[in-house]
Design a protein that fits this description.
Helix content is 75%, strand content 0%. It has 276 residues and is mainly α. The model has no long low-confidence stretch (mean pLDDT 88).
């Protein structure tokens, strides 16, 4: 398993780095593919709680969030972006409830509505929308994405390796019973150090050393929380992985779960810092 993870990383990481560097429509395409695959996997997990969710409309709405983020600079020239986003949020709520109302059945429909909204907003808005905004952030978007991915994925790898080598004390959560205290601490330490190093190296004119250290810790902590949140979905559904698309890593949710909370956190931290 470990060497399959390494081989997949060796093949995929250079490609992802190149796409992040290129940006523009190629980066948008990468995020769209990842988010749409995550949504398909999520709908597959959700069928363990309700009848199979039709992924077509949820995939469309997820992609729409990414496209809105990509087009926000153009929209801002003629429309208030906040009004456009709140209008779209309202449309999503109306659509999801209306679809269930006209299905001519009641049993389990509230669960279905909740599952649909959770998938659309978590994958489409919380992750996809902010991944696009972060890359398009003025002239430092590329560096912010490198900081995000480098910190979170190195933290994930550090937690995995330290847990395998030294893990003795269980973290104590039934969501992920194999995780250990040692692995968690190891991931936080590795992530904080990597985040600090990348912050100082790539964003020295944007973040202070203290900011870089704090961001490293914050992203590592939220990365592990995202991983545990995805584990909650999978554990509740009774499956180990969300898919088997990426050898050694599972599915797209398995690979991107640690970005779910860390991505918007980094974006809004940067937004707040640049106004002070």
């Amino acid at each position: 398993m470990f060497w399959r993870r390494v081989l997949s990383a060796v093949v995929l990481v250079p490609l992802v780095v190149l796409i992040i560097y290129w940006g523009d429509w190629l980066y948008l395409l990468l995020v769209l593919i990842a988010m749409l695959m995550m949504q398909v996997e999520y709908c597959r997990l959700a069928q363990h709680f309700t009848e199979k969710l039709n992924p077509v409309m949820t995939v469309f709405l997820t992609g729409a969030f990414c496209l809105l983020a990509h087009l926000s600079p153009v929209l801002a020239k003629s429309l208030p972006v906040s009004a456009v986003m709140f209008s779209f949020f309202t449309f999503v709520f109306i659509y999801v409830f209306a679809e269930s109302i006209f299905r001519a059945k009641v049993d389990g429909e509230l669960i279905t509505v909740t599952l649909k909204l959770t998938g659309i907003f978590t994958i489409g808005w919380v992750l996809g929308y902010h991944l696009i905004l972060l890359r398009n952030a003025e002239s430092i978007g590329m560096h912010l994405i490198f900081l995000l991915c480098g910190t979170v994925w190195c933290s994930d790898t550090g937690a995995y390796l330290v847990g395998r080598a030294f893990g003795k004390h269980k973290l104590g959560t039934p969501v992920s019973p194999r995780k250990t205290v040692e692995g968690t601490i190891g991931g936080l330490v590795v992530g904080t150090l990597i985040g600090f190093g990348l912050g100082v190296l790539l964003l020295k004119d944007t973040f202070s050393w203290l900011d870089a250290a704090f961001i490293g810790l914050l992203l590592s902590l939220l990365g592990q929380l995202g991983d545990l949140s995805a584990s909650l979905m999978k554990r509740t559904a009774g499956v180990k992985d969300s898919g088997d698309v990426i050898p050694g890593h599972g599915g797209f949710i398995d690979r991107c779960d640690s970005l779910i909370f860390s991505t918007p956190a980094l974006y809004y931290y940067w937004e707040l810092m640049r106004h002070f």
